[in-house]
Write a structure and sequence with these properties.
elongated; 37% helix; two-stranded parallel sheet; 147 residues; single chain; 5 helices
Length: 147
């Protein structure tokens, strides 16, 4: 039973690496290319065929030009999914960590904050005065201190 559990954990850890791995179009085989979201068997075959015919892709522009079906928009999506050309992601494409996360939009009328002015020097406060009813009263002569 423990052996099966350990095997399941090891398998899960091994497959997690595929989900977050970067795949370079110049080095990947069909299975690795298929693991990228947005790349199916047809596109992976087109990538491999073009790489065999024309050599390695120089950059993203060369990749988009040579592989039918990959343009700037699709290239950006593929780059965000983990596809790289020559070990580099497409300029302007960031890795998505969460599918629901959206980049923050800048406010159209946002203005830079003005420089802050130094605060005026603080003046020392006068000593606090105790109210008249809280002043110490002498203890009565025969009173016992209670503890």
């Amino acid at each position: 039973m423990i052996k099966k559990l350990m095997l399941a954990v090891a398998t899960m850890i091994a497959t997690m690496g595929f989900a977050f791995a970067q795949v370079d179009v110049n080095k990947a085989d069909a299975a690795a290319l298929d693991s990228v979201k947005g790349v199916g068997p047809k596109l992976s075959k087109a990538i491999i065929d073009e790489r065999a015919k024309g050599g390695e892709f120089k950059d993203w522009a060369d990749f988009e030009k040579r592989v039918k079906g990959v343009g700037p928009k699709n290239g950006k999506k593929l780059s965000m999914a983990g596809l790289q050309v020559g070990g580099k992601s497409m300029d302007g494409a960031e890795m998505k960590m969460d599918a629901k996360a959206k980049p923050a939009k800048a406010m159209p009328d946002a203005k830079p904050m003005p420089e802050s002015k130094p605060m005026p020097e603080a003046k020392p406060m006068p000593p606090a005065k105790a109210p008249a009813d809280m002043k110490a009263k002498p203890a009565a002569a025969g009173a016992k201190a209670s503890m």
